[in-house]
Fold:
Amino acid sequence: MKRIGLLGCGSIGTQIAIAIDTGIIPAKLTHIFDEDKEKSVSLASKLKNKPEIVENVHLLSSNPVDLVVEAASQDAVSDNALSILQNRKDLVIMSSGALLDESVFEIISDACKELKKTVYLPSGAISGIDAIKSVKNELDSVVLTTTKHPNSLKGAKFFDDFKINLDEINEPSTIFEGTASEAVRLFPKNINVSALLSISGLGSHETIVKIIADPNTTKNTHEITARGKFGQITTKIENVPDSDNPRTSRLAILSAIETIRSICTSDIKIGT
Amino acid sequence: MKRIGLLGCGSIGTQIAIAIDTGIIPAKLTHIFDEDKEKSVSLASKLKNKPEIVENVHLLSSNPVDLVVEAASQDAVSDNALSILQNRKDLVIMSSGALLDESVFEIISDACKELKKTVYLPSGAISGIDAIKSVKNELDSVVLTTTKHPNSLKGAKFFDDFKINLDEINEPSTIFEGTASEAVRLFPKNINVSALLSISGLGSHETIVKIIADPNTTKNTHEITARGKFGQITTKIENVPDSDNPRTSRLAILSAIETIRSICTSDIKIGT
Structure:
């Protein structure tokens, strides 16, 4: 049974830990760490099988774990991914936005090849990454259209320069259209979806992102259209926000759990 | 570098072999087999790095290969999957329809667990299996709508009992709606798509399949709608038929190549 070290004990980390503790993921959670020790203590208190709370992130991967799961932050990835791989651990990355930095991507990819370790990026809150990565070399265009309630967009850096009053929007309105690279800079809450789609397809400078504010929706909707010699792929996911953490889609958590379950199981693996 | 044995040297097997031979898949094709030896000889003649042509299917997995790739038939899966796993080889299955037989599925799944080997099922000609398998336990309904030119449906068993003249269809017409289990029996050419979707989600008795004959289309279109507590997933793929084998969608071949490439690489693995 694989031993897992968890980096990040917030809402997502907690749900992953509970999936391990309840046997949905057939593994053993042996070590956990969070910058905020109270979060680690709080998480441990919720689990039947108590993991060891370690004092720093390096102790996660220097201990005899098989897999480290990051559910912390982009900085946690940039700062620690290489050292985790050098400690000969596989790694699941939830904060896939970190890999939009090409130098970070290259360092991690090279380390995987050299050290024969694997980094896993769950599909997150979108669907169809299985098909898009398969046709990567034949793609002509990839467009992501994200639709959210105006309240979910509040506070984005975009509004520092563009004086749109979100409270006055009374019908679905396109408020941004540009590259994934720009979208990530201006709408940090959309980072992981844009990042994962960019990495699996045309990269962040060729992937187009549209953001629509819709005062009538309660869901976070991501629609992807990809075209090329193979034909056309359209996928749309209307995500119900997670009840514990409305900023996260339920699918993002479920896809992380499925990714880790699959890593920890010898069985029939479905899908590309 | 992983050593691959190929079971089936038809159109799909040939394209996989060429992907290995040209380095798209970083592996070594060491042994090949086909019931029709001429196909093996013809395939070998197209490759720079000549594999050994073996005389029976058992020699594929008794030789020192790491992975067997099946691109032959459902019977080839039912007859040989267990023995391949018992020979301690991982296995990629293209003819996923074989796994709709619950006893076959169970034997293969149990063998994977017991022998610590893995069977891989590429997503094939559909998209979004990454999301659907993630929400498997929260699904209320899954519907697959396949749209094809009437000519692509000719010869299906369905028409033995239902006297529809496909040549007289002059607008998009729903000609079948039922369970995936029934669809597979009546429309054998749709087997792998219906099978893979069933296995990843609600099973073949709960997955609904609609088949539409559209005289105006040149593509094979598969649309999936899945609903549940998580929200709703819709994916649509308009597949251009493969130029070498019009009965196969280009995506089906590309997703097989991507699956095998990923198995043979230590790198960043994108998607659930």
